[in-house]
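Lecture notes, continued. The same structure-token format from the folding unit now serves as the input rather than the output. Read the line below as a description of shape only.
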């Protein structure tokens, strides 16, 4: 029985196979539109769509005036997420074969809680939260994005109201909230994937629509009250998540 998939998917899969098998190496130019049209007897629209699929999957990127080229998809390292990870806004340890200098930028603002965030925090939609957006760089290259939300009813008017300012800046959620008498006892993480938005793609250095890994992380205190929740975004093709699991005796 013949292949019933749309032609553009067959073209994209064939190009992916050639890349995976090494026939097209990192840095090689993807065949031009005219070359693909001849090779697959397809229209302009069909081959353009196939190349867009290839870009969205992270296999290729366009270079203005030059063409489309195979990208490096080798993992850069792992992000270790464990109880022993450093309690910082990054909330992970970078593991690579090279030493890594981590830096980040952050911007905080007060905003009404969107309904999905309110549900995660157990507050009402529109209740005031402090939203902090982070961009993390490893050796000056983008590695992770994060957006954090904290109920203002918990931190407003305290020394820890702004995560990146004051005497407890950059201490992480546990360290900061401990300073105002709140003991964070656990965190829950839900891991998923989705296409990167245009702003995320620009920040992470990938194509819009390319697959990213998303971690939905929520911190809870001793009364099982959610005190912070965040969305963490990394490129799925360049970074793997590692979880250390300790078994009780």
């Amino acid at each position: 029985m013949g292949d019933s998939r749309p032609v553009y998917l067959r073209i994209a899969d064939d190009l992916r196979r050639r890349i995976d098998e090494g026939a097209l190496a990192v840095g090689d130019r993807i065949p031009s539109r005219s070359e693909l049209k001849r090779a697959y007897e397809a229209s302009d629209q069909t081959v353009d769509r196939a190349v867009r699929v290839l870009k969205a999957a992270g296999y290729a990127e366009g270079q203005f005036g030059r063409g489309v080229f195979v990208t490096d998809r080798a993992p850069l390292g792992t992000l270790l997420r464990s109880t022993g990870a450093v309690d910082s806004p990054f909330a992970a340890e970078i593991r690579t074969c090279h030493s890594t200098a981590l830096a980040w930028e952050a911007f905080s603002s007060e905003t009404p809680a969107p309904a999905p965030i309110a549900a995660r925090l157990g507050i009402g939609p529109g209740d005031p939260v402090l939203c902090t957006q982070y961009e993390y760089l490893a050796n000056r290259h983008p590695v992770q994005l994060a957006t954090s939300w904290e109920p203002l009813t918990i931190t407003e008017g305290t020394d820890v109201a702004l995560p990146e300012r004051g005497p407890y800046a950059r201490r992480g959620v546990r360290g900061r909230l401990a300073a105002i008498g709140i003991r964070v006892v656990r965190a829950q993480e839900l891991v998923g994937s989705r296409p990167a938005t245009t702003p995320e793609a620009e920040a992470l250095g990938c194509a819009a629509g390319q697959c990213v890994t998303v971690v939905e992380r929520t911190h809870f205190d001793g009364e099982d009250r959610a005190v912070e929740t965040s969305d963490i975004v990394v490129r799925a093709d360049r970074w793997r998540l590692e979880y250390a699991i300790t078994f009780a005796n």
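Point for the exam: The chain has a mean pLDDT of 90.
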